[in-house]
Design goal:
This is 2Fe-2S ferredoxin. By secondary structure, the protein is an alpha+beta fold. The protein has helices at about 25-30, 60-65, 70-75, and strands at about 5-10, 15-20, 50-55, 85, 100-105. It has one domain: Beta-grasp domain (Ubiquitin-like (UB roll), Roll).
Length: about 110
């Protein structure tokens, strides 16, 4: 089957992507599937914050907290919230099937 994730884009339109293989970067999945606001300018090296998302409260414990490097990069992003993550740092795995995030406002 595969993993399913839902991105809520800035315009409110939900984009659900299904049949994702475990191990994929959430940022790459968003870019490849045309999710508005997921730019990933640094290619996933946690250096630009152009893949900033807000993790839905029901999923925060499963995605975990950002590490020191990610927290430093988030400091460059506008509108950081307690549930902010860079989706380049979220590797999809079976227990994240159904994950829901909202794309943060662009710079």
């Amino acid at each position: 089957m595969g993993i399913k994730v839902t991105f809520v884009q800035a315009n409110g339109v939900e984009k659900t992507i299904e049949n994702i293989a475990a191990g994929e970067s959430m940022m790459e999945v968003g870019r490849f599937n045309g999710v508005e606001g997921i730019l990933g300018d640094c290619g996933g090296s946690c250096a630009c914050a152009t893949c900033h998302v807000y993790v839905d409260a029901a999923w925060e414990a499963r995605t975990g907290k950002p590490d020191e490097v990610e927290t430093g990069t988030l400091d460059m992003a506008p509108d950081v919230q307690p549930n902010s993550r860079l989706c380049c740092q979220i590797r999809l795995r079976d227990e994240l099937d159904g994950l829901r995030v909202t794309v943060a406002p662009s710079f």
